[in-house]
Amino acid sequence: MDTTRIPTTPGVYLFKNKAGEILYIGKAIQLKNRVKSYFQKNLIGEKTARMVAQIDSIQTIRTTSEFEALLLEAKLIRKYLPKYNVASRDDKHPLYIKITSEEYPKIQTVRREDDKTSLYFGPFPSSRVVKDTLRFVRSIFPYCTEKRIGNRTCFYAHLGLCNPCPNEITRLEPAQKRLEKRRYRHTMTLIKRLFSGKLRGLMRQLQKEMNEHAKAERYEQANSIKQQLVKLDYLTTPRLSVKQYLENPNLYSDIRERELTELGTVLTIPTPRRIEGYDISNTMGTHATGSMVTFIDGEAEKQHYRKFKIRLKKTPDDVFMMKEMLRRRLNHTEWDYPDLFLIDGGETQVGAAQSVLAEFRLATRVIGLAKQMEELVVPITSSRGQRFRRIRLPAGSSALALLQRVRDEAHRFARSYHLLLRKKGMLY
What we know:
Strand content: 15-25%
CATH topology of the largest domain: Nucleotidyltransferase, domain 5
Shape: globular
Number of domains: 3
Number of helices: 15
CATH class of the largest domain: Alpha Beta
CATH architecture of the largest domain: 2-Layer Sandwich
CATH superfamily of the largest domain: UvrC, RNAse H endonuclease domain
Number of strands: 14
Structural class: alpha+beta
Radius of gyration: 26 Å
């Protein structure tokens, strides 16, 4: 079976027989490696080998995160009931996430849909992944797991994983009790939206609540929601509904194309297929490093990454270091030039980069992404000298998501090399 064209992103894979029937549906954080593992005879068991012998074709649906793949896998299994998913290992039933309908709803993992009043999500073939996911979700939206509600604060409330704690709510005065009970049930509503795949709407709702708290100067509540948003962003970025993946198996490619097209429109340039991102990392000038990351058609191409050990400066001077790195990069004429240079920084850093490109007589567009307000810094031609235009894209902008991905990867790559040099320096 040819697996060379299978993507390396997270997603879902569907094994089909000659009749087009789905034999098995699985998810993976790295599709290509996972699918290839089925065809390594020494690594699979007898039961899996029987299934593999029937595979005639493989369909993959790319997602942008493992969490989205988890939800999509469950929906597809529930819809198609593939033979080898239903006949699960050791004849065990797959796992469901159950949200009870009692006064203080609880989240449980169960093997069967055992009552009609509760809400179920699944089935999920991997109990480990479900439990790990629930553990992370609970750190975002604390909820109760006590079998019975008493009047003694539970252990998890002290860890911040049960908030508000139903055991504490029962001891409150009626007015405060109603308020805290409503707050607990609101948390459960947010969790239901999360597991329903309504991620974009959930993020918008939280953003709105955070802004309302901030406007009313309830800064502690606003900050709490901000932390929830940060964790949700980590769990799944960008925010896409599972329904979209079901309706369009090519959604992942469409998203990447939309990012590139929007970026070209914003900058009034042809679609930038190849983007290079740059960042500097140092500690007060010591062990200074620079990074160059390359994205082609919106995807990181790590074989084109380059790292630079800064040689000419030993004191803090990011602008000088950026110039050194760019000069060394541009001297490598055997490396293909990008359609766009992205610099981590504002006017000063972008101006420095632009001056280096001018030295090499390159007209390639160079822009910056300023961290403070996540604004694009775009140099413009003016009779009054060098000027810059700041563009603030909306939070849901596809172009902004692409630039943030490039910038963050450049930062990660530069920092990892910097930390390596620091570690080596401590050994001598």
